[in-house]
Amino acid sequence: MNLLSVGASYRTADISTLERLTIAEDAVPGLLHKLVSQPYIGEAVLLSSCNRVEIYAAVSGFHGGLGDVCNVLSEASGIPATELAGHLYVHYDEAAVQHSFRVSAGLDSMVVGESQILGQMRDAYHAASEADTAGRLLHELMQQALRVGKRAHAETGIDKAGQSVVTAALDVAAAEMGPLDQKSALVIGAGAMGSLSVATLTRAGVGSVRISNRSAAAADRLAEAYGAVAVPFEQLDAALRSADLVITATAASEPVLTRDRLSAAGPLVVLDLAVPRDVAPEAAGLPGLTIIDIDSLASSRRTLPAAAETAAVEQIVTAEVEHFLGWLRGADIAPTVAALRNRAEDVVAGELRKLYARRAEFTDEQRADVSRTLHRVVQQLLHSPTVRVRQLAAEPGGDQYAALLRELFDLDVPHATQADAVPEIGGKA
Length: 429
Prior knowledge:
Oligomer: single chain
Number of helices: 16
CATH architecture of the largest domain: 2-Layer Sandwich
Shape: elongated
CATH superfamily of the largest domain: Glutamyl-tRNA reductase, N-terminal domain
Helix content: 40-55%
CATH topology of the largest domain: Beta Polymerase, domain 2
Distance between the termini: 23 Å
CATH class of the largest domain: Alpha Beta
Strand content: 5-15%
Order of helices and strands: EHHEEHHEHHHHEHEHEHEHEEHHHH
Strand order of the largest sheet: 7-6-5-8-9-10
Number of strands: 10
């Protein structure tokens, strides 16, 4: 099996396309099962955040696997495959490993170095594990990606400023409305992004923070944790009228902030961090309303760090990719080595049957002695070559050793060869 990563992010798609691609949390298990039911896909993990939707898959062939992933995404989103293709990036094998590690380290995030992506990757991995769609290859990839992300944050200063999508959005808001210390803020949503928003607003010293959520209990818990005030969702209109700044990050499938609701609220700066969007598109252009969403953040230079801040993380990723590829090459040769040992055992068993058929006078003890001796001879003969071939296979170009063993000993190893070739590894970022 080979690794394939296919997705769309703020780099390749606008917010309207990402909205259509977004998979609701309760629909994730069904989509994962749909993926692994396809002919070329054996394992699947779905990662979804406010600015990316991507699938990691173990596939038996590049073109077949890519077609399967695209068809499933097209069906789930309602976007025709021909239109969807223009928004997707594709990475294969080594490039897929590198992409997953860069994502986990925050290098591919809208706000480079943000650490929220680690939690999102962990959730994606857990969801795939729960759905039983992550096998040996993706278990190893996800575990190593999470380890690389933790290492990047522990060993470098990439997140020393505590940057996140929320801090970037607040920077943009401050440029629009001035210092935030005397402003009244309202957070709509008490999930992961809502919690991050409340924490960030509190650290920023915003004048007052209120929280509104469909689940009053979740809003109460979050408010108590940060000394904020919980507002019943039924009183949202009144809360909007007394707010200067609104951050909305719900998981609602339909806009929470309609044009009528916002027109009655008066002047507002709204940070819409939800995908799908919480602000109705027709609200744009209302007098006194400023909307900052994922699209406007993606075009903001405030989200881009200096190159020096990422150099150390890039070095970590490069080294970890090579380490993972060494493991992968070693894992690839294991079935071939096992097949070779099985072939040797079959030959020994066959020769012993012939010998015992000719020498019926052998006692059970004599037969056992002969059998043990022959098995020891075979094990000793194979030990050094198989140890050495595992070492060689872990080095760059090591896949040739597995192929050579299969050719020399005429071994039939399932999934030992690619179903189809790909002319160039990787794809657009």
